[in-house]
Amino acid sequence: MQTPSEKSCGKACQRPDMSTEETFRSTSAQGRLELIPQLVGELVAANVDVLVALYTPCARAAQEATRDIPIVAIVANPVETGFIASLARPGGNITGVSLMAAEAHGKCVEVFADMLPWARKVAALGNASDPFMPCSSKRFTSQQRKRELR
Description:
alpha/beta; Rossmann fold; disordered N terminus
């Protein structure tokens, strides 16, 4: 029985050599980021058809592990974090969804500055080990200066 997405995809998604057996394998580092490269290595060794990488650490490990297997990544800003050359022409073997979170962080400063015009001291908390933090911090600081906030 076909799923709705398989029905809508039709023949375009079918390869002539494709077997009828499908496998979906999910793995997790259980919060231990140092395990991600090893887990990705196991998936690459298993010769999977596609790697789906959720968020920056997994996408980075997947990109470092293979240039042959297609990677579908969900990351904050793939251009600024260096995953792809541009949104229009990503290049390489990686594609996916951009969360555009840095832009949202800058927009948050605009929104609360409009809502709380009397506020002059603004603090932001972040995780310095997050690879996306420099992009987010840059947007936040830019808007902070623009709005003359400290």
